[in-house]
Design brief:
One of its GO terms (cellular component) is spindle pole. The chain is an alpha/beta fold. It is built from eight helices and 13 strands.
Amino acid sequence: MEGFEHLGFLIQFEDKGSDGDFLSQAAPIFANSDPDMPAVPVPASQVLGWLLQNIASSLEHVTEKNPAKENGPPSGSDQDVVKASPSVRSPCFIEGVSKSSYVKQASDLKNSSLKVINCHDSVIYILAPLRYATIYGCSDATIVLGAVGKAVRVEHCERVHVIIAAKRVCIANCRECVFFLGVNHHPLIVGDNHKLQVAPYNTYYSRLEEHMTEVGIEATINRWDDTLELGMIDPHNSLSHPAGVSDAQAESATRLDPDHFTKFLIPNWLEGESTGSTKDNPFPLTDPYLTSQQKNQNNLGETKQILREAPLEENLKRELSCALHVYFRDWLYASGNIRQLYCQQSD
């Protein structure tokens, strides 16, 4: 614990000029971080994950701020330094999308940070390389993020399907969400979460591997089910942590049933004239999910063949076709996949 506290000289959580607290008192992972009390053992992997997440969040915050000297006259020491313009530094916002399909490609994004905020009952495709991404306050939506080289944070979302290829992912205060992950590091689950499910990455678009290479994501490493759950109650908050109440641990995510795992198809027309070399999901699937996917493909092929070879008269074929369309429409609404057929909204 003493060595951990020494990191506090490098990582400061208080405003500049304040006395500050021990680093362990800023970390929610210690059930008893009172410096006058015996330390409670915590796995080193949890400490590392917490530190990495806070460093990533701090870096994202820094990229969003425009330094004062950037807006003022340059000094003699930095006249030869090429600086990013404020429009490049500030994040791109996608906010308030409702009952629509929305797509952004690499050519549409002039910066490396993205925030998707308060979007509902929609399908959002971000087919571009990014450094940071935040998804906040969304519900009943499907959100596809291309390749995120630093970190993704998903917070306060409900009944959202999120498809992410990223270095790191942090999930906080979400309910009934499903995460299809291609992630190189432990996914972090913090805060008050309920009924979360995780599954391997399940889609692709033509430039996905190009974008992954650009931001440094390795397709051979996928720790989608190797989550780290961090404590959700601040032990120094007397309101949320009254005396005599034990610390509550963040609820863990469960693996999606392989029988419910399906490939998510991104329509080719969403990519416009963009062409790339990716022809399939670059992240290898584990056996249960690969078997389920192959089973679904075989069942679809057999059904198509049966329908083609069915010895039916023309009027019966039309009746069968109408019945299939009705059942398919009902399934679209019942499953929520009707959102994928909303008219495209690009701006």
